[in-house]
Design brief:
4 copies of one chain form a homotetramer.
Chain A lengths: L3 E2 L26 E8 L5 H10 L3 E7 L3 H10 L4 E3 L2 H6 L5 E4 L6 H10 L3 E5 L6 H14 L3 E4 L6 H11 L6 E11 L8 H17 L5 E7 L9 E7 L5 E7 L1 E13 L3 E5 L7 E4 L2 E7 L9 E7 L3 E3 L7 H15 L7 H18 L6 E2 L2
Parallel strand pairs in A: 2-3, 2-5, 3-4, 5-6, 6-7, 8-11
Antiparallel strand pairs in A: 1-2, 8-12, 9-10, 9-18, 10-11, 12-13, 13-14, 14-17, 15-16
Chain lengths: 372, 372, 372, 372
């Protein structure tokens, strides 16, 4: 695989001061940047392009999109890149080492497969693919070809989720009781996927990362308010071992934007509000202690003894790096160092398996569907 | 039924100025107050006593509780009342016209039945009874004896819920899409009932009042984190006709207190946050318009056309009367005027029917349970 | 000084079970409770009466108020007390050991002086008196007669202010930069005093307690929006040594209620929001480090080097006792143990001196008025 | 003045599809865009450049900054522009019709004057100049040369401030009582200007726009916590006719960011919180009615009759255009149409006159300084 010497932009060469000719970049100091091609320059593609271009580990060398006006915008912002209306031309571009796929879900599988087969490392927008079968095939292909396959579960790279994971790992929360998230707002109605395959993917990927455990079964309810359109309001319960329960509420029709997760443990509890400007994660040193006494009270042979604990609330300082910047850098490092990404194909598959079970449950009157 | 002349307290007679003997109250101006007996003077009983005593339509004449220290507290606050360790003595007290039952749930039915049979009008704390069978029997008994039977669904008498009901009735919200409520906090763990029969009763009674429609089916999930103890975290979905969906989240183990309901309609939407000190109800003039065009876009034969509307947000002024004061007055008026209460036995029954279905679903892997 | 055996209410004697005569209280177990008389039973008097009656260290034995309907209300709530239309009768009541004065400000001095001269210990509502001259006279009289004189600076007894004081004392905040408070709301318009002598007293007493230092000078601006009425909107700056500054904003005409204080130190900073239900005090481990370099930058001979620090935010657990309950208990303990109250006459005087300086400044175009 | 045909970027020409040569832009459809040169590409310059480049009425053709690395960044983002280390070269560039000055305050006057003398229209970052004398000279020069002089009082072009102005103009607030703003946060410490000349400029420009009246006098207090550095915490009172008062609190050392303005009128009141994501402006239909009765109450010969009104709270929908985009477009339109900008030199001067008075007051113990 050939590498690209960094020649990102005029910025790196110093300003083109009026009247003086440009000089070529000095190659000696250039780093071995990962040369990235972006497929899909719609809603999320520009964010990916910006982050991959600004990361110290990569540069964007090509963009493909069937819509000329989108390519024009990409070209305008990054004059040095090549643009292609046909993604196959991008895959044929020998300079492109790695491909970032930011297209509608129904195209993820075929594009990712083609990219892998073209010898490119692949980062796919979430969700990884449209079915667990497709996800498995991508995972196997990447393994066979010794290529990196990563899914953009962006939130796992945020300071907030990293801090929560660290608090769980260090035992601050104790045994976990529940994980409860609400992700609702007005809009961004999708027409090719339901709200589960859109919003819930975020929460399922965070939940998978925090709980580090797959649910035993999944129950879901929901409704498609508009005939012929996908489900836009859904509720999803995940059952785990040891009485741990998780619940997700996702809704495209809410009058206000809410992004809030409660995580209860027997030692401490967390409120994670992603809309808080500065105190996104709050750790509550409070809880309940329940014991059973053999005493014969008025209320029955065994009295429940409940005592509440309350203590300080801590909002720990969080890393402020843009999550997508960390995604870009992590992907490049995994490629360069041959490491397995935090959000590898398997992580993408685990989320899809829950989504599939949720859909079956939703279509079967909420009956819990076992996993695996 | 004999009436009591008001002789509530020294306050009504003017101060006992030092050195002057008290004079008897002037009977001429006294109103025909409902004489109330309170059974159960634990957590909620004192609030009921206070409100029935301060209401212009009633006075408390007796309290019963098996615990002497509770009776001492009642007597200390209301020197003029009779106190009884045995509720049957209170029911035998001929001055008592109406009985307010504020005891643990498992006693509601027998106490209410006894009270009705003793010829007393009855107000029961929520929930009305422990089963729909019991509720039906109470309703029938009250009807046979021509007595008022009312359940204390307190929130229906608050300014916030009354305003929401008025907004729905006047068509401001249009066709309803969903009703979503969260009622979580740390504590008040009950040991004789689950969180459904405790917290969810509030939301089910509000939902019943706002939607004015019974669900077709109910699905529920949840968990009892402590062995041998009732379910303390639960999620409940109600399915209605016309794609209307409702969902309740109740939890005794949350680190923060949340009391928030979202109500979505196709014209306007409401956020009802009961913890807001002054703007509990906000009406959002926003929503989504979805239409289907026959155009052949890139994405398929039928494109989804979504347009978002956004407008003003209004926090209407709410009545500030204490809800329980209105409960007390409404009950007295129904007795005096022979009216059916807003929260009559049938309202209590409707809530219980949903609770029973939810429990069956919760024990049957979340499978939706049809209602009657 | 005679002591009163506790015979507070029927509650202490057990319930008056129907049909059985009351028995007299058993004197043996009674504690030596401070016998308190309340002068003024208007807005705040009932709160004081309740707290002094429920405190384990005192009991209310008498109330005086010129308005019969207020006395009737007191008598209704506390049947055992004596009520007087004339405060002099209360002062003549030999059972009364200590007097609590909760009347309009213009009566504080004469009532407190009379009470001291009658040999009673005195707690006066804030502010202590209408002038520093009056305050000095009260302090001297109490000292001469060896009586306790205390002013009800209630907030100093709250969990929030106690915690803030502890954080300052322990050096967590480092050197203090500023104290900034906002106390605004709609209403409680007074007509005998300005908003300074009403709302600002709270903040000045807290400030005095936290900073433990008297201002060098005071500047104030403000306005009386209604002719002939007192100033209802005011801004007050206090200048201290070492570049410490304090500022208060008080306003009776604000559409929203705000109770927020910022305290900046060179190590940590505090936000104290008294309206927060559970996290009233937040400690920010953040700040700014400013150094001066001798380097010759483009911007001048001396560059300012500013670096920002940011760390965790901590909301410490606070004591939840009602502040007024602590006031009642502290007063009784000071009387019984001959201790000097935290909010003694001198504390009351310090606040009044700032108020007087503020008024002079306000009437002199905001010109800072030196203290002392 | 020569005009520039739009040739903004490759984007306007369509994408440079691989393998096909670029074609020149079609000149016929190009609009007559204002050709803008930016002087100063530090903190705010890039925002101005972006907005002037994306506005439908202008294009950026040149940038000057003494720092090569800043020019490199500008060039990288806008490959088509000319960059100059010397602003005089930019002023000599005949294509530049208008100049935007985004440099430190102490350079505003000389740069703006030079630009005007070079025949360029001028937009200056706030504040307009370092003294009222300088501002007057700029105003006169622009008038003499018939050039547009505008100051970037950005907030006046925001949806929130426009709505507030409209509410005041339509009489919704009635007679105004007060204007109270708080603008505090940690950081952005300036070393060439005080917090007054930095943060307070925003509030003074908004206040000037809303109240449409110049203060009679200004009083200010404040402190420079760091020796040799400018004032970083300041309080400023503006006195107007008819008992209208305004107050500003600005602080660079606050642990939290606050951007809140209260505006009280005798009909309605406004809370404007610029940090609220969606309900920045709330209109409170509440207030106080004060009348004086001649009755002889206990409290004095004239009783104050106060009644409170409370009604709905409305958060009106606001325009969502970025304020700076509107600034850019307004400036270009004023140039093209020969109109006077909303924030013309006179608006800039009015703000500076208050700042100068505030500084004098601050250095004179808070003594109010008359204006004009």
């Amino acid at each position: 695989m050939s590498a690209i010497r960094r020649a990102r932009s005029a910025a790196a060469r110093g300003p083109r001061v009026a009247g003086r000719p440009r000089r070529p970049p000095i190659a000696a100091g250039a780093r071995d940047l990962l040369a990235v091609g972006i497929i899909g320059y719609g809603y999320w593609g520009p964010n990916l392009a910006r982050n991959f271009n600004e990361a110290p580990t990569s540069t964007v060398v090509a963009v493909s999109d069937p819509r000329p006006e989108r390519l024009a915008q990409a070209q305008g912002r990054y004059p040095a890149i090549e643009v292609y209306t046909d993604y196959q031309a991008l895959l044929a571009d020998r300079r492109v080492e790695a491909v970032v796929i930011a297209t509608p879900l129904h195209t993820h599988f075929s594009l990712a497969l083609a990219a892998l087969k073209a010898g490119k490392h692949v980062l796919v927008e979430k969700p990884l693919a449209g079915s667990s079968e497709q996800a498995v095939r991508l995972i196997e292909t990447a393994a066979d070809l010794d290529l990196v396959l990563m899914v953009d579960h962006t939130f796992l790279y945020s300071g907030a989720v990293r801090k929560i994971r660290a608090l769980v790992d260090s035992g601050h929360l104790g045994r976990l009781y529940y994980y409860d998230s609400v992700r609702v707002n007005l809009g961004m109605f999708q027409h090719d996927v339901s709200v589960l395959w859109d919003l819930a993917v975020h929460d399922l990927s965070i939940m998978d990362h925090i709980l580090q455990e797959e649910p035993r079964a999944v129950a879901a309810t929901g409704v498609a308010h508009f005939p012929g359109q996908p489900v836009n309001t859904a509720y999803l319960t995940c059952f785990f071992d040891n009485r741990l329960i998780a619940h997700l509420h996702v809704n495209w029709l809410a009058p206000v934007k809410i992004r809030r997760t409660l995580i209860g443990g027997d030692r401490q509890m967390i409120v994670y509000d992603d809309l808080e400007p500065s105190e996104k994660v709050k750790v509550y040193d409070k809880g309940v202690t329940v014991s059973t006494s053999p005493g014969e009270g008025l209320e029955g042979a065994h009295d429940l003894l409940v005592s509440y604990r309350a203590g300080d609330v801590l909002a720990p300082q969080l890393g402020v790096a843009e999550a997508l910047a960390t995604v870009a850098q992590h992907f490049a490092e995994c490629v360069r160092e041959g490491r397995r990404p935090l959000t590898d194909g398997a992580a993408g598959l685990r989320v899809i398996r829950v989504l599939e079970a949720a859909e079956r449950s939703l279509n079967d009157s909420g009956m819990a569907v076992p996993l695996g």
